[in-house]
Amino acid sequence: TALMGALGFFVMEQTAPFDPDFGTAREALDALARGAIASSELTAHVFARIKRHNPQLNLFISLAEERAMALAKAADERRARRQRLGALDGLPIVVKDVFATEGLRTTAGSKKLEAFIPTEDAVVVARAKAAGAIVIGKTNLPEFAGDWQSYNQVAGTSNNPWDGARTPGGSTGGGAAALAAGLGFLEIGGDLSGSLRIPSHFCGVYGHKPTADLVPPRGHIPPPPGVVAPHSELGVVGPLARGADDLRLALDVIAGPDGPEAKALRCALPPPRRDSLAAYRLGYLIDDPYCPVDSGVGRVLSDALDSLRRSGAQLSEGWPAGVDPARQFETFGALLAAFMSQTVPDQEFQELRRGVEKGAGDPFATGMTVLHRDWLRYGGDRLRARAAWHDYFETHDAFLMPVTFVAAFPHDHTSDMSARRLITAEGSRPYQDLPRWTAFANLTGCPATVAPVGRTAGGLPVGIQIMGPLFEDATSIDIAARMAAVTGGFVAPRTLR
User: Fold this and answer.
1) Catalytic residue among 40, 150, 195, 200
2) Is pLDDT at 441 greater than 80 in this prediction?
Protein backbone atom coordinates (compact mmCIF):
# COMPACT_ATOMS: atom_id res chain seq x y z
CA THR A 1 0.00 0.00 0.00
CA ALA A 2 2.83 2.35 0.88
CA LEU A 3 4.49 1.54 -2.46
CA MET A 4 1.27 2.19 -4.39
CA GLY A 5 0.84 5.46 -2.54
CA ALA A 6 4.37 6.50 -3.41
CA LEU A 7 3.83 5.55 -7.07
CA GLY A 8 0.58 7.52 -7.12
CA PHE A 9 2.36 10.57 -5.73
CA PHE A 10 5.08 10.17 -8.38
CA VAL A 11 2.51 10.03 -11.19
CA MET A 12 0.77 13.13 -9.86
CA GLU A 13 4.08 14.95 -9.65
CA GLN A 14 4.84 14.01 -13.25
CA THR A 15 1.48 15.30 -14.51
CA ALA A 16 1.89 18.86 -15.73
CA PRO A 17 -0.35 21.25 -13.76
CA PHE A 18 -3.30 22.53 -15.75
CA ASP A 19 -3.34 26.27 -16.49
CA PRO A 20 -6.99 27.39 -16.33
CA ASP A 21 -6.03 30.79 -17.78
CA PHE A 22 -4.17 29.80 -20.93
CA GLY A 23 -4.25 26.02 -21.19
CA THR A 24 -5.31 24.43 -24.45
CA ALA A 25 -8.70 22.83 -25.00
CA ARG A 26 -7.17 19.35 -24.91
CA GLU A 27 -5.40 20.16 -21.65
CA ALA A 28 -8.66 21.43 -20.19
CA LEU A 29 -10.53 18.29 -21.23
CA ASP A 30 -7.76 16.14 -19.75
CA ALA A 31 -7.95 18.09 -16.49
CA LEU A 32 -11.71 17.57 -16.42
CA ALA A 33 -11.31 13.85 -17.14
CA ARG A 34 -8.84 13.25 -14.30
CA GLY A 35 -10.74 15.39 -11.83
CA ALA A 36 -8.12 18.13 -11.53
CA ILE A 37 -10.90 20.68 -12.00
CA ALA A 38 -14.67 20.56 -12.38
CA SER A 39 -16.47 22.10 -15.34
CA SER A 40 -18.36 24.41 -12.98
CA GLU A 41 -15.05 25.58 -11.47
CA LEU A 42 -13.47 26.09 -14.89
CA THR A 43 -16.47 27.95 -16.27
CA ALA A 44 -16.66 30.18 -13.20
CA HIS A 45 -12.94 30.88 -13.56
CA VAL A 46 -13.40 31.98 -17.18
CA PHE A 47 -16.24 34.32 -16.24
CA ALA A 48 -14.11 35.79 -13.47
CA ARG A 49 -11.40 36.54 -16.05
CA ILE A 50 -13.99 38.08 -18.36
CA LYS A 51 -15.18 40.39 -15.59
CA ARG A 52 -11.59 41.38 -14.87
CA HIS A 53 -10.26 41.88 -18.40
CA ASN A 54 -13.16 42.43 -20.79
CA PRO A 55 -13.92 46.03 -19.69
CA GLN A 56 -10.60 47.05 -21.30
CA LEU A 57 -10.82 44.65 -24.26
CA ASN A 58 -14.55 44.74 -25.13
CA LEU A 59 -14.63 41.38 -26.91
CA PHE A 60 -18.20 40.20 -26.34
CA ILE A 61 -21.59 41.20 -27.70
CA SER A 62 -23.51 38.86 -25.39
CA LEU A 63 -22.66 36.66 -22.41
CA ALA A 64 -24.64 33.71 -21.02
CA GLU A 65 -23.29 33.24 -17.50
CA GLU A 66 -26.39 31.83 -15.80
CA ARG A 67 -27.08 29.35 -18.59
CA ALA A 68 -23.41 28.38 -18.89
CA MET A 69 -23.07 27.68 -15.18
CA ALA A 70 -26.16 25.47 -15.26
CA LEU A 71 -24.73 23.52 -18.19
CA ALA A 72 -21.37 23.21 -16.43
CA LYS A 73 -23.02 21.72 -13.36
CA ALA A 74 -24.89 19.28 -15.59
CA ALA A 75 -21.58 18.27 -17.20
CA ASP A 76 -20.12 17.62 -13.74
CA GLU A 77 -23.11 15.43 -12.90
CA ARG A 78 -22.70 13.42 -16.12
CA ARG A 79 -19.07 12.86 -15.31
CA ALA A 80 -19.82 11.87 -11.72
CA ARG A 81 -22.40 9.34 -12.94
CA ARG A 82 -19.93 8.03 -15.51
CA GLN A 83 -22.36 8.70 -18.32
CA ARG A 84 -21.27 8.80 -21.93
CA LEU A 85 -19.49 12.10 -22.59
CA GLY A 86 -19.11 14.17 -25.73
CA ALA A 87 -15.77 15.11 -27.24
CA LEU A 88 -16.02 18.64 -25.74
CA ASP A 89 -17.96 17.78 -22.61
CA GLY A 90 -17.82 20.57 -20.03
CA LEU A 91 -15.52 22.83 -22.10
CA PRO A 92 -16.27 26.59 -22.09
CA ILE A 93 -16.15 27.94 -25.66
CA VAL A 94 -16.98 31.19 -27.45
CA VAL A 95 -18.83 31.71 -30.74
CA LYS A 96 -18.62 34.50 -33.29
CA ASP A 97 -21.83 36.51 -33.28
CA VAL A 98 -22.76 35.60 -36.83
CA PHE A 99 -23.92 32.11 -35.82
CA ALA A 100 -27.49 31.72 -34.65
CA THR A 101 -27.60 30.54 -31.03
CA GLU A 102 -30.92 29.38 -29.64
CA GLY A 103 -32.14 31.62 -26.83
CA LEU A 104 -29.06 33.87 -26.97
CA ARG A 105 -28.98 37.23 -28.75
CA THR A 106 -27.35 37.02 -32.17
CA THR A 107 -26.77 40.41 -33.84
CA ALA A 108 -24.08 39.94 -36.52
CA GLY A 109 -22.89 43.30 -35.19
CA SER A 110 -25.86 45.15 -36.67
CA LYS A 111 -28.38 47.49 -35.04
CA LYS A 112 -30.96 45.86 -37.33
CA LEU A 113 -30.59 42.65 -35.31
CA GLU A 114 -29.81 44.17 -31.92
CA ALA A 115 -32.74 42.39 -30.24
CA PHE A 116 -32.80 39.22 -32.36
CA ILE A 117 -32.94 35.99 -30.35
CA PRO A 118 -32.91 32.86 -32.53
CA THR A 119 -35.16 29.91 -31.79
CA GLU A 120 -32.65 27.38 -33.11
CA ASP A 121 -28.91 26.93 -33.41
CA ALA A 122 -26.67 27.21 -36.44
CA VAL A 123 -25.42 23.76 -37.44
CA VAL A 124 -21.94 24.30 -36.00
CA VAL A 125 -23.33 25.57 -32.70
CA ALA A 126 -25.70 22.61 -32.45
CA ARG A 127 -22.84 20.19 -33.11
CA ALA A 128 -20.60 21.84 -30.52
CA LYS A 129 -23.40 21.70 -27.95
CA ALA A 130 -24.15 18.06 -28.80
CA ALA A 131 -20.48 17.32 -28.06
CA GLY A 132 -20.93 18.86 -24.60
CA ALA A 133 -19.37 22.28 -25.23
CA ILE A 134 -20.65 25.17 -23.13
CA VAL A 135 -21.20 28.41 -25.08
CA ILE A 136 -20.29 31.18 -22.64
CA GLY A 137 -20.77 34.11 -25.01
CA LYS A 138 -20.88 35.61 -28.49
CA THR A 139 -17.79 37.47 -29.66
CA ASN A 140 -17.57 40.86 -31.36
CA LEU A 141 -17.08 41.55 -35.07
CA PRO A 142 -17.65 44.24 -37.69
CA GLU A 143 -21.23 44.72 -38.88
CA PHE A 144 -22.25 41.68 -40.93
CA ALA A 145 -18.62 40.51 -40.81
CA GLY A 146 -17.70 43.13 -43.40
CA ASP A 147 -14.26 44.39 -42.33
CA TRP A 148 -10.81 43.32 -41.15
CA GLN A 149 -11.39 45.12 -37.83
CA SER A 150 -13.99 44.37 -35.14
CA TYR A 151 -16.29 47.26 -34.30
CA ASN A 152 -19.99 48.07 -34.63
CA GLN A 153 -22.78 50.26 -33.26
CA VAL A 154 -24.12 47.47 -31.04
CA ALA A 155 -21.06 46.72 -28.91
CA GLY A 156 -18.39 49.22 -29.93
CA THR A 157 -14.73 48.50 -30.66
CA SER A 158 -12.73 45.43 -29.67
CA ASN A 159 -9.10 45.91 -28.67
CA ASN A 160 -6.06 43.73 -29.23
CA PRO A 161 -4.80 42.10 -25.98
CA TRP A 162 -1.21 42.82 -27.04
CA ASP A 163 -1.87 46.55 -27.53
CA GLY A 164 -5.25 48.07 -26.78
CA ALA A 165 -4.71 50.87 -29.30
CA ARG A 166 -4.63 48.29 -32.09
CA THR A 167 -7.25 46.10 -33.72
CA PRO A 168 -7.50 42.35 -33.06
CA GLY A 169 -8.45 42.03 -36.73
CA GLY A 170 -11.69 40.95 -38.32
CA SER A 171 -14.06 39.71 -38.87
CA THR A 172 -13.41 37.02 -36.22
CA GLY A 173 -11.49 39.56 -34.15
CA GLY A 174 -13.40 39.33 -30.89
CA GLY A 175 -12.94 35.57 -30.80
CA ALA A 176 -9.23 35.58 -31.62
CA ALA A 177 -8.63 38.21 -28.94
CA ALA A 178 -10.75 36.29 -26.40
CA LEU A 179 -8.57 33.22 -26.86
CA ALA A 180 -5.37 35.27 -26.60
CA ALA A 181 -6.71 36.82 -23.38
CA GLY A 182 -7.67 33.47 -21.85
CA LEU A 183 -11.44 34.05 -22.06
CA GLY A 184 -12.52 30.66 -23.43
CA PHE A 185 -10.93 27.54 -24.92
CA LEU A 186 -12.20 27.41 -28.52
CA GLU A 187 -13.81 29.86 -30.94
CA ILE A 188 -16.08 29.03 -33.86
CA GLY A 189 -15.42 31.63 -36.55
CA GLY A 190 -15.63 32.14 -40.28
CA ASP A 191 -13.43 33.09 -43.22
CA LEU A 192 -14.56 34.61 -46.52
CA SER A 193 -11.52 36.83 -47.09
CA GLY A 194 -9.00 36.09 -44.36
CA SER A 195 -11.57 36.79 -41.65
CA LEU A 196 -10.35 33.92 -39.48
CA ARG A 197 -6.66 33.86 -40.39
CA ILE A 198 -5.88 37.58 -40.12
CA PRO A 199 -7.19 37.85 -36.52
CA SER A 200 -5.27 34.68 -35.60
CA HIS A 201 -2.10 36.34 -36.91
CA PHE A 202 -2.83 39.67 -35.18
CA CYS A 203 -3.58 38.04 -31.81
CA GLY A 204 -1.00 35.23 -31.77
CA VAL A 205 -3.38 32.24 -31.78
CA TYR A 206 -3.97 29.27 -34.06
CA GLY A 207 -6.68 29.33 -36.71
CA HIS A 208 -7.83 26.94 -39.41
CA LYS A 209 -9.68 27.77 -42.63
CA PRO A 210 -11.08 24.36 -43.63
CA THR A 211 -11.48 22.93 -47.10
CA ALA A 212 -14.48 24.54 -48.80
CA ASP A 213 -17.84 22.90 -47.96
CA LEU A 214 -16.30 20.74 -45.23
CA VAL A 215 -18.18 22.57 -42.45
CA PRO A 216 -21.85 23.53 -43.02
CA PRO A 217 -22.62 27.28 -42.84
CA ARG A 218 -26.37 26.92 -42.24
CA GLY A 219 -27.40 29.37 -39.55
CA HIS A 220 -24.73 31.93 -40.45
CA ILE A 221 -25.82 35.58 -40.66
CA PRO A 222 -25.68 37.05 -43.29
CA PRO A 223 -27.89 36.23 -45.09
CA PRO A 224 -30.69 37.57 -42.88
CA PRO A 225 -32.38 35.14 -40.50
CA GLY A 226 -34.80 32.84 -42.34
CA VAL A 227 -33.18 33.40 -45.75
CA VAL A 228 -31.55 30.37 -47.34
CA ALA A 229 -27.87 31.09 -47.94
CA PRO A 230 -26.73 30.85 -51.57
CA HIS A 231 -23.78 28.58 -52.14
CA SER A 232 -20.40 30.28 -51.83
CA GLU A 233 -17.23 28.71 -53.20
CA LEU A 234 -15.17 31.17 -51.12
CA GLY A 235 -16.47 31.31 -47.54
CA VAL A 236 -15.99 28.70 -44.82
CA VAL A 237 -16.63 28.08 -41.12
CA GLY A 238 -13.67 27.11 -38.96
CA PRO A 239 -12.09 26.99 -35.48
CA LEU A 240 -9.54 29.11 -33.60
CA ALA A 241 -7.60 27.90 -30.56
CA ARG A 242 -4.48 28.25 -28.43
CA GLY A 243 -3.10 24.92 -29.63
CA ALA A 244 -2.90 23.37 -33.11
CA ASP A 245 -4.21 20.01 -31.88
CA ASP A 246 -7.33 21.82 -30.66
CA LEU A 247 -8.10 22.79 -34.27
CA ARG A 248 -8.40 19.14 -35.27
CA LEU A 249 -10.41 18.40 -32.13
CA ALA A 250 -12.91 21.11 -33.06
CA LEU A 251 -12.94 20.19 -36.75
CA ASP A 252 -13.84 16.59 -35.92
CA VAL A 253 -16.90 17.93 -34.10
CA ILE A 254 -18.20 20.53 -36.56
CA ALA A 255 -17.25 19.02 -39.95
CA GLY A 256 -19.44 16.80 -42.08
CA PRO A 257 -22.39 17.01 -44.48
CA ASP A 258 -25.65 18.69 -43.54
CA GLY A 259 -29.26 18.19 -44.55
CA PRO A 260 -30.08 15.88 -47.49
CA GLU A 261 -26.36 15.39 -48.27
CA ALA A 262 -25.93 13.64 -44.92
CA LYS A 263 -28.14 10.78 -46.20
CA ALA A 264 -25.44 9.73 -48.63
CA LEU A 265 -22.16 11.39 -47.69
CA ARG A 266 -19.77 10.83 -44.79
CA CYS A 267 -16.77 12.87 -43.62
CA ALA A 268 -13.54 10.87 -43.42
CA LEU A 269 -10.54 13.17 -43.65
CA PRO A 270 -7.25 11.49 -44.57
CA PRO A 271 -4.52 11.46 -41.91
CA PRO A 272 -1.49 13.78 -42.08
CA ARG A 273 0.84 12.93 -44.96
CA ARG A 274 3.99 12.61 -42.82
CA ASP A 275 4.96 11.56 -39.32
CA SER A 276 7.76 14.05 -38.66
CA LEU A 277 8.60 17.63 -39.51
CA ALA A 278 11.76 16.53 -41.32
CA ALA A 279 9.71 14.32 -43.62
CA TYR A 280 7.49 17.12 -44.89
CA ARG A 281 8.16 18.68 -48.31
CA LEU A 282 7.37 22.36 -47.85
CA GLY A 283 7.30 25.12 -50.40
CA TYR A 284 7.41 28.70 -49.23
CA LEU A 285 7.47 32.36 -50.12
CA ILE A 286 7.58 35.02 -47.40
CA ASP A 287 7.92 38.12 -49.56
CA ASP A 288 7.14 39.05 -53.14
CA PRO A 289 6.52 42.17 -55.24
CA TYR A 290 2.94 40.89 -55.60
CA CYS A 291 2.41 41.99 -51.98
CA PRO A 292 5.60 43.15 -50.21
CA VAL A 293 5.76 42.28 -46.52
CA ASP A 294 6.68 44.78 -43.81
CA SER A 295 10.32 44.13 -42.91
CA GLY A 296 9.52 43.66 -39.22
CA VAL A 297 7.02 40.91 -40.03
CA GLY A 298 9.38 39.49 -42.64
CA ARG A 299 12.19 39.08 -40.09
CA VAL A 300 9.98 36.95 -37.85
CA LEU A 301 8.90 34.76 -40.78
CA SER A 302 12.52 34.42 -41.93
CA ASP A 303 13.60 33.33 -38.45
CA ALA A 304 10.81 30.74 -38.42
CA LEU A 305 12.03 29.31 -41.73
CA ASP A 306 15.58 29.14 -40.38
CA SER A 307 14.27 27.13 -37.44
CA LEU A 308 12.47 24.79 -39.81
CA ARG A 309 15.65 24.27 -41.82
CA ARG A 310 17.57 23.39 -38.67
CA SER A 311 14.88 20.84 -37.84
CA GLY A 312 15.54 19.08 -41.15
CA ALA A 313 12.36 20.09 -42.97
CA GLN A 314 12.65 20.02 -46.78
CA LEU A 315 12.11 23.59 -48.00
CA SER A 316 11.88 24.93 -51.54
CA GLU A 317 11.28 28.59 -52.40
CA GLY A 318 9.08 30.04 -55.14
CA TRP A 319 5.57 30.19 -56.52
CA PRO A 320 4.13 26.92 -57.83
CA ALA A 321 4.28 26.45 -61.58
CA GLY A 322 1.18 27.88 -63.22
CA VAL A 323 0.32 30.18 -60.32
CA ASP A 324 0.01 33.81 -61.35
CA PRO A 325 -0.64 35.49 -57.98
CA ALA A 326 -1.93 38.80 -59.36
CA ARG A 327 -4.37 37.11 -61.73
CA GLN A 328 -5.60 34.73 -59.04
CA PHE A 329 -6.20 37.68 -56.73
CA GLU A 330 -8.11 39.48 -59.49
CA THR A 331 -10.30 36.39 -59.96
CA PHE A 332 -10.86 36.13 -56.22
CA GLY A 333 -11.81 39.81 -55.99
CA ALA A 334 -14.34 39.52 -58.81
CA LEU A 335 -15.99 36.43 -57.33
CA LEU A 336 -16.01 37.98 -53.85
CA ALA A 337 -17.66 41.15 -55.17
CA ALA A 338 -20.24 39.13 -57.10
CA PHE A 339 -21.08 37.11 -53.98
CA MET A 340 -21.37 40.21 -51.80
CA SER A 341 -23.64 41.97 -54.30
CA GLN A 342 -26.60 40.08 -52.84
CA THR A 343 -26.45 42.33 -49.75
CA VAL A 344 -26.44 45.62 -51.70
CA PRO A 345 -29.82 47.46 -51.72
CA ASP A 346 -31.46 47.64 -55.16
CA GLN A 347 -31.07 51.40 -55.54
CA GLU A 348 -27.37 51.31 -54.66
CA PHE A 349 -26.89 48.34 -57.00
CA GLN A 350 -28.43 50.25 -59.90
CA GLU A 351 -26.15 53.22 -59.18
CA LEU A 352 -23.15 50.88 -59.30
CA ARG A 353 -24.33 49.50 -62.65
CA ARG A 354 -24.71 52.96 -64.13
CA GLY A 355 -21.24 53.91 -62.91
CA VAL A 356 -19.69 50.82 -64.51
CA GLU A 357 -21.57 51.45 -67.77
CA LYS A 358 -20.13 54.98 -67.81
CA GLY A 359 -16.61 53.58 -67.51
CA ALA A 360 -15.97 53.82 -63.77
CA GLY A 361 -12.78 51.90 -63.08
CA ASP A 362 -13.59 50.47 -59.66
CA PRO A 363 -12.90 46.71 -60.00
CA PHE A 364 -15.07 45.90 -56.98
CA ALA A 365 -18.06 47.68 -58.52
CA THR A 366 -17.39 45.82 -61.77
CA GLY A 367 -17.38 42.52 -59.92
CA MET A 368 -20.57 43.39 -58.06
CA THR A 369 -22.45 44.05 -61.29
CA VAL A 370 -20.87 41.34 -63.43
CA LEU A 371 -23.02 39.47 -65.96
CA HIS A 372 -23.66 35.80 -65.36
CA ARG A 373 -21.64 34.83 -68.44
CA ASP A 374 -18.63 36.70 -67.01
CA TRP A 375 -19.20 35.16 -63.57
CA LEU A 376 -18.99 31.74 -65.23
CA ARG A 377 -15.70 32.77 -66.87
CA TYR A 378 -14.32 33.77 -63.49
CA GLY A 379 -15.51 30.41 -62.19
CA GLY A 380 -13.45 28.71 -64.88
CA ASP A 381 -10.41 30.75 -63.80
CA ARG A 382 -11.04 29.61 -60.23
CA LEU A 383 -11.00 25.97 -61.27
CA ARG A 384 -7.79 26.49 -63.27
CA ALA A 385 -6.19 28.03 -60.17
CA ARG A 386 -7.33 25.04 -58.13
CA ALA A 387 -5.79 22.68 -60.70
CA ALA A 388 -2.43 24.50 -60.58
CA TRP A 389 -2.27 24.18 -56.80
CA HIS A 390 -3.42 20.55 -56.99
CA ASP A 391 -0.52 19.76 -59.30
CA TYR A 392 1.87 21.48 -56.90
CA PHE A 393 0.63 19.40 -53.99
CA GLU A 394 1.49 16.23 -55.88
CA THR A 395 5.15 16.97 -55.14
CA HIS A 396 4.83 19.24 -52.07
CA ASP A 397 2.87 18.69 -48.87
CA ALA A 398 2.13 22.34 -48.07
CA PHE A 399 3.00 25.92 -48.96
CA LEU A 400 4.13 28.42 -46.31
CA MET A 401 3.48 32.14 -46.76
CA PRO A 402 2.54 35.27 -44.81
CA VAL A 403 -0.97 35.71 -43.49
CA THR A 404 -0.88 39.38 -44.41
CA PHE A 405 1.81 42.00 -44.91
CA VAL A 406 1.53 43.81 -41.54
CA ALA A 407 1.13 43.06 -37.85
CA ALA A 408 -1.86 44.43 -35.92
CA PHE A 409 -2.39 48.09 -36.77
CA PRO A 410 -4.01 51.03 -34.94
CA HIS A 411 -7.82 51.31 -35.05
CA ASP A 412 -9.05 53.08 -38.19
CA HIS A 413 -12.80 53.21 -38.78
CA THR A 414 -12.80 55.69 -41.65
CA SER A 415 -16.08 54.96 -43.43
CA ASP A 416 -14.47 54.89 -46.88
CA MET A 417 -12.21 51.84 -46.78
CA SER A 418 -10.47 52.91 -49.96
CA ALA A 419 -9.20 55.99 -48.08
CA ARG A 420 -7.57 53.94 -45.30
CA ARG A 421 -3.80 53.44 -45.39
CA LEU A 422 -1.63 51.01 -43.43
CA ILE A 423 1.85 52.07 -42.33
CA THR A 424 4.80 49.74 -42.87
CA ALA A 425 8.51 50.29 -42.38
CA GLU A 426 8.74 50.73 -46.14
CA GLY A 427 5.85 53.18 -46.52
CA SER A 428 2.05 53.32 -46.49
CA ARG A 429 -0.10 50.76 -48.31
CA PRO A 430 -3.75 50.44 -49.37
CA TYR A 431 -6.03 48.89 -46.76
CA GLN A 432 -7.49 46.57 -49.40
CA ASP A 433 -4.12 44.80 -49.71
CA LEU A 434 -4.83 42.96 -46.44
CA PRO A 435 -6.26 39.76 -48.04
CA ARG A 436 -3.71 39.41 -50.81
CA TRP A 437 -1.95 36.46 -49.11
CA THR A 438 -5.11 34.78 -47.82
CA ALA A 439 -6.94 34.90 -51.17
CA PHE A 440 -5.35 31.75 -52.65
CA ALA A 441 -6.93 29.38 -50.13
CA ASN A 442 -10.33 31.06 -50.46
CA LEU A 443 -10.19 31.01 -54.25
CA THR A 444 -9.15 27.36 -54.56
CA GLY A 445 -11.02 26.00 -51.54
CA CYS A 446 -7.80 24.59 -50.07
CA PRO A 447 -7.33 24.38 -46.29
CA ALA A 448 -4.98 26.82 -44.58
CA THR A 449 -3.76 26.85 -40.99
CA VAL A 450 -2.23 29.82 -39.16
CA ALA A 451 0.44 29.13 -36.53
CA PRO A 452 2.03 31.79 -34.28
CA VAL A 453 5.80 31.89 -34.86
CA GLY A 454 7.05 34.93 -32.95
CA ARG A 455 6.71 38.64 -32.36
CA THR A 456 7.99 41.79 -33.99
CA ALA A 457 10.54 44.07 -32.35
CA GLY A 458 7.56 46.05 -31.09
CA GLY A 459 6.12 42.96 -29.41
CA LEU A 460 3.24 42.25 -31.81
CA PRO A 461 2.41 38.64 -32.76
CA VAL A 462 3.21 37.19 -36.18
CA GLY A 463 1.68 34.07 -37.65
CA ILE A 464 2.59 31.98 -40.67
CA GLN A 465 0.05 30.59 -43.10
CA ILE A 466 0.26 26.89 -44.03
CA MET A 467 -1.82 26.11 -47.13
CA GLY A 468 -2.42 22.44 -47.82
CA PRO A 469 -4.07 20.14 -50.37
CA LEU A 470 -7.86 19.94 -50.73
CA PHE A 471 -9.49 17.81 -48.02
CA GLU A 472 -6.11 17.18 -46.36
CA ASP A 473 -6.83 19.55 -43.49
CA ALA A 474 -5.07 17.18 -41.10
CA THR A 475 -1.78 17.79 -42.91
CA SER A 476 -1.66 21.57 -42.51
CA ILE A 477 -2.83 21.27 -38.89
CA ASP A 478 -0.18 18.63 -38.18
CA ILE A 479 2.56 20.83 -39.63
CA ALA A 480 1.38 23.70 -37.41
CA ALA A 481 1.45 21.42 -34.36
CA ARG A 482 4.95 20.12 -35.10
CA MET A 483 6.29 23.60 -35.81
CA ALA A 484 5.56 24.66 -32.23
CA ALA A 485 8.53 22.62 -31.03
CA VAL A 486 10.96 24.57 -33.22
CA THR A 487 9.38 28.00 -33.79
CA GLY A 488 7.37 28.37 -30.59
CA GLY A 489 3.61 28.25 -30.14
CA PHE A 490 1.05 30.36 -28.34
CA VAL A 491 2.37 32.88 -25.82
CA ALA A 492 0.03 34.76 -23.49
CA PRO A 493 0.15 38.58 -23.53
CA ARG A 494 2.32 39.65 -20.62
CA THR A 495 -0.25 42.02 -19.11
CA LEU A 496 -2.91 39.28 -18.92
CA ARG A 497 -0.88 36.47 -17.37
Assistant:
1) 195
2) yes
